[in-house]
Request: fold
Amino acid sequence: MTGIAEILEEIAAAMAAAEDRGKVADYIPELAGVDPNQFGIAVVLADGTELVAGDAATPFSIQSISKVFALTLALGRLGDRLWQRVGREPSGYAFNSILQLEQEQGIPRNPFINAGAIVVTDAVLAGHAPREYLGELLRFIRMAADDEDIHINRDVAKSETETGHRNFALAHYLSAFGNLMNPPDRALGAYFHQCAVEMTCLQLARAGRFLMRAEGGPRLVSAERVRRINALMMTCGHYDGSGEFAFRVGLPGKSGVGGGILVIAPGRASIAVWSPGLNENGNSQLGTAAVEMLARRAGWSVFG
Amino acid sequence: MTGIAEILEEIAAAMAAAEDRGKVADYIPELAGVDPNQFGIAVVLADGTELVAGDAATPFSIQSISKVFALTLALGRLGDRLWQRVGREPSGYAFNSILQLEQEQGIPRNPFINAGAIVVTDAVLAGHAPREYLGELLRFIRMAADDEDIHINRDVAKSETETGHRNFALAHYLSAFGNLMNPPDRALGAYFHQCAVEMTCLQLARAGRFLMRAEGGPRLVSAERVRRINALMMTCGHYDGSGEFAFRVGLPGKSGVGGGILVIAPGRASIAVWSPGLNENGNSQLGTAAVEMLARRAGWSVFG
Amino acid sequence: MTGIAEILEEIAAAMAAAEDRGKVADYIPELAGVDPNQFGIAVVLADGTELVAGDAATPFSIQSISKVFALTLALGRLGDRLWQRVGREPSGYAFNSILQLEQEQGIPRNPFINAGAIVVTDAVLAGHAPREYLGELLRFIRMAADDEDIHINRDVAKSETETGHRNFALAHYLSAFGNLMNPPDRALGAYFHQCAVEMTCLQLARAGRFLMRAEGGPRLVSAERVRRINALMMTCGHYDGSGEFAFRVGLPGKSGVGGGILVIAPGRASIAVWSPGLNENGNSQLGTAAVEMLARRAGWSVFG
Amino acid sequence: MTGIAEILEEIAAAMAAAEDRGKVADYIPELAGVDPNQFGIAVVLADGTELVAGDAATPFSIQSISKVFALTLALGRLGDRLWQRVGREPSGYAFNSILQLEQEQGIPRNPFINAGAIVVTDAVLAGHAPREYLGELLRFIRMAADDEDIHINRDVAKSETETGHRNFALAHYLSAFGNLMNPPDRALGAYFHQCAVEMTCLQLARAGRFLMRAEGGPRLVSAERVRRINALMMTCGHYDGSGEFAFRVGLPGKSGVGGGILVIAPGRASIAVWSPGLNENGNSQLGTAAVEMLARRAGWSVFG
Reply:
């Protein structure tokens, strides 16, 4: 697989030279200071080969990428009952919009916008303490990545708690519609810590292997469920930039405001890319460009 | 490929027995009288094999499926300049919603909602007479289907013209924002006739072959463009039911209120299904169920 | 009443010296060329005294002020049945917004936004020819003003017809919801001509006397109906600037994009003011300032 | 003034016999148990005459009527600077809507919808403890009513705190836009207690005298400010039922979900009415009917 390795080196070089690197998210103070000049990429191929380039060994805050793992847990716990509380359609609004929640009576459009992800966390949390939920989530991620060295950055979680007024608004609003089982403080406590998980590109690419479903790869969930999670990542994984990502990259993916993106080439590869600067939709500017190049060069688009 | 043939027979039998067949669209009087008990499916495989079941030889009104062909023409004519006038994101609203057009200053969200499709038709129409545009569109569809026997039903077009107040509202609204080059009457004249093209399932599946991009198949447009059209069908092809279709079927598709759906399994098959009864999002109820069964049984989902 | 006369002179002087005169509406080409340096005001007191200052004898296009007269006719014709087709609440959106019409199923919020006014005209028009409707409207206005020299400017009506895409969109949208009895073209033909009535400030102030309901004044409609029309002018007469007008002026009024405003001080005065430059809500900038001064100096606010 | 006394008796009799009494608000548990069969009305005339009928001596929770007193304090404290943080337009949405807050970047439409009232309370609260704010508010109300026996019901405040998720959502949302100076918990602590003030109809009618501005009456604020507060009550005092109230009653008023309404007939009377059952807009059903009768019979509409 020398081909992919070379492509990754070219991508890393191109990204190192990029001038417009987007803008680091500043609404989580603890993340605002991250150096925007970083870029990393890691690819795990179907045969298990691992390829990296750039800052692939630097841990970053996975933020909303955690929603993929939480959704997987929630579907394992509740199955299709989850869909009574959250929809499966792209939202057409920003990730933290509350407007649609009013129009649609407290049912978030999908599990990847913030409101939907808070419902997902709340559903798994059930009556348990946030600590237990976070323990289960970490166990799942570590198992998927086959790596115990994955942790939550409590300073980031704390920073988000202190400034997360929009998320508090969403949680209280969900409560007002009876779509939150736990008190808003508790659900958000779990949610903010979940978002503060830190991983390297290589760890994240490994953790995504179960969504690639390669021959002989890990089988953490059924084929049917993998397809559905990938479908949701394709239509909703990049908020109101999801159509654009599908158009340019052609692969299911989930971004986080920390600048990471997990991208799945079904049957072929699990890809993690990271660069802290974001575009106007809140998705990594260079990360998106990098996976676009990779998908085109490798011929991995699911669309032909 | 006996396997697929058998699957199609089983699907046709299941659909013949289905009780909840959805509701035939009644806002186009000429279509309201179509017998809801019909169901047809046609598949063209990558090797050129053609398989049919049910009423695959009955012509039906392709309606919004025509937007795929019009978009292909528009991209051929304007290239990426088209995207200055129409977006590439799922809309989150119904196919004929005007609300978003006001919020977003006359730029339709994507080329598959009505407002966007009117812009696409207007862009191809340019200063030409609707007759010329329709001639070009029919030539393209006939070439793609390799079949000269494809026509426009002028009674359907007339029926739509007389009752198409929402589309007239959209066209005038686009004009108000300077996003329509032709007078609303002329652009809609072309649009209503485009929607009134009639095809059988087999003709439609053949016409979709260029989006499958099989080895040795027709190469009407570049690989890059095929991928992009498929991506748009995946994220926007079923209006506010696009997420659901991706979740259940896992293939790019475009539906029409006549009850047809064109579905592409990239590299594997071009599929056309038709049954006149619609679900709440305006997409064929049995058609959706049928391609869901087919995709699952054949293992064609792009999501693994 | 020397007091009011002096106030009017002071107002006219202040307005002549004003630097920020707003912006003349440019979306109706025929009106775009009006000289923004004009200002006129006319007041008819309860005892019949008439006072004028500035360009009070220059005819201007009354535009949306005509909605008050059309509403009066409609209530005379249909009574409370009118309210099945149009609401009585402020809209919170711009005068030509279509968004709310979609959210509220084709029932315009009130008779003074464009959509509502089109419904009102349509209701009076019934099956008659626009010519008959316009004849009736002119007769009513002339009777109210006691002046036969009031006419429709057909060039303005024609100009509006050619550029009135937003109004065409509204009319077709109303049709789509079954809330227009006449074909959109016919209803709008009547509507555009109604808006093109030309009057001087003095004529308009006289025409408004029936809403003042002074002792011995004209009694064209019942006291109950006068109160209700005034109430609608207070809450909805200035589109999304209605709250501001009530806050600053404290009197019911109806503005038009021609720069005129009809203002009623119940029991005390009928006031017409005109200056072509508009503020951001589409209401006369100097006209609003002038009636604010007048209401304060004369102590005419209904709010104490 | 025997006339008004007789009208009040007739009104009280009519209301006692009314069958459709609306629905008692149930989202504040502590208020859900109030007996819907109660009705009271009190009128203070310009000459100081006080007239009552029905349950005019029964204390009720004034709820949103408190927003009038808080606004008066805020204008006294901040003057026109207040309008940088809150608008003056009717909202067109329900009292607790959050949608508009997103569309308009955290600036509530007016001081009488919940979001706007929370901003007003927050502005007066400044850095002080809620206890101090509430002390100041009670002193103001008691002075206006000339009655020391007016208190806060802490059980009601507590009940609202426990179930007020929509208000918590609004407060956090305001914080997210930087339009809340105090922590949401503290601002809402003050707000919920402010809403839990209890008064009788007679106390409330007396407290409203300063807005009537009768000769020799209390002069707590300037004439200019009184007019502006009355204007806001007219256009925004009944949420998305404000237009209807102006249309039917023709007087400025402010309702509360406890079933009370404070209504001002400028220069003539201060009126308080109470009946716990609400109409669909959240305003007292019988209270509205009662003041409609009173205004018509007494000829008090400001609209002629």
Remarks:
- The radius of gyration of chain A is 18 Å.
- Residues 238 and 244 of chain A are 9 Å apart (CA to CA).
